[in-house]
């Protein structure tokens, strides 16, 4: 019995020792876990602090981004406004240049017209001088004939009336009125006509207008920048604004031009199709479009 009691006591002692060992190990594990937990708590606090700092920086970044976007929009608006102003200024300059080119073309046309008018005026002066010479010659012949008539009337002693000599128009013979005595009415008419031939100078009849189908001209000048040509047909040939002409090369049409401005001997016509400006050449034939 004593041995059994000792054994039980020994077992109890062992159990207690084991329990104490386990309790000590548990306590050590608990302390370690508490230490880890404290460390994790500190790390978590640091993470929270960093997170708050990051959120603050993110908020600042958002504000900066919004400010930059506002500045970018303002800058974009300014660039658009400057672009519009630049385009308007460029358009204005192009229009001014176009007006200058048109004024230059008009000036050249006016110079050409003035030169033509001066040439025609000179020709008219020459023709006028020539006609004055012919008129003076006719007046001299008339005076000579009147003198001869007076001499003949002075020599006639029988009082026979020789009649009046009628000076006809140039190229006709001078006929004594006593040679053939038509009826009184016809004689008066003849005298009136002869007087008219002596006193009046009939202007040459105006040339008949040229039929549109018979018109034929050529290209004088090409302006590719402003898409027009100058042709040697004008109001003198019956050309009008909005008339359409076909441009021919080797008898084939390469396109049409439409009259925009007309002068007496020439006209400015724009390309109906802008692509033909690279095909047309100076000297190309132009005819009215059928």
Kindly provide the name of the CATH class of the domain at 213-288: Mainly Beta
State the order of secondary-structure elements, H for helix, E for strand: HEEHEEEEEE
Separation, N- and C-terminal Cα atoms? 150 Å
SS-based structural class?
A: alpha+beta
* CATH-defined fold name of the domain at 213-288: Thrombin, subunit H
* CATH architectural grouping of the domain at 213-288: Beta Barrel
Report helical residue fraction.
Answer: 55-70%
Question: For the largest beta sheet, what order do the strands appear in spatially?
Answer: 3-4-7-6-5-8
Mean pLDDT: 78
The number of E-state strands comes to: 8
How much of the polypeptide forms β-strand, as a percent range? 5-15%
- CATH homologous superfamily identity of the domain at 213-288: Rod shape-determining protein MreC, domain 1
Globally, the shape reads: rod-shaped
How many helices in DSSP terms?
A: 2
Alpha-carbon Rg, integer = 59 Å
Segments where pLDDT lies below 50 for 5+ residues? 155-212
What topology does this entry show?
Elements lengths: L1 H154 L9 E2 L8 E2 L7 H16 L17 E7 L4 E4 L12 E6 L2 E11 L4 E5 L13 E4 L2
Antiparallel strand pairs: 1-2, 3-4, 3-8, 4-7, 5-6, 5-8, 6-7
Q: Can you describe what's shown?
A:
The protein has about 290 residues and is an alpha+beta fold. It has a domain of about 80 residues: Beta Barrel (Thrombin, subunit H), CATH 2.40.10. About 60% of the residues lie in helices and about 15% in strands. The protein has a six-stranded antiparallel β-barrel. Strands 1-2 form a two-stranded antiparallel sheet. A hairpin with an 8-residue loop joins strand 1 and strand 2. It is rod-shaped, with a radius of gyration of 59 Å. The termini are far apart. About 20% of the residues have low confidence.
